[in-house]
Task: inverse folding
């Protein structure tokens, strides 16, 4: 989440009229897709996983061997798709066909 002028390279999503909803959505996304929240300066200097990794909110890409580059890139792509409004595409990739059917109560 960012307010103000776009200074850094990267993708920007928005504008979003409700800041509270944005914060709640980002908190939920972080629980579902545990991607890093730290800055590049912090990210490069890690020798062990951070607190976010220890509580399950980060896959720990900053520490070699915790997650493959491909697996982490897939998680980032899911978040990109979701924030781009392609949440149906994310769901179809995450939920195997047939597991979406409601269970019968009988």
Result:
């Amino acid at each position: 989440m960012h307010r103000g002028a776009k200074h850094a390279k990267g993708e920007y999503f928005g504008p979003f009229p409700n800041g509270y909803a944005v914060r709640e959505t980002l908190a939920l996304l972080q629980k579902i897709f545990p991607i890093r929240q730290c800055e590049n300066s912090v990210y490069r200097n890690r020798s062990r996983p951070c607190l976010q990794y220890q509580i399950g909110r980060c896959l720990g890409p900053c520490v070699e061997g915790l997650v493959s580059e491909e697996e982490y890139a897939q998680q980032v792509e899911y978040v990109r798709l979701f924030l781009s409004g392609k949440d149906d595409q994310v769901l179809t990739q995450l939920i195997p066909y047939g597991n979406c059917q409601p269970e019968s109560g009988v």
The two ends are 46 Å apart (CA to CA).
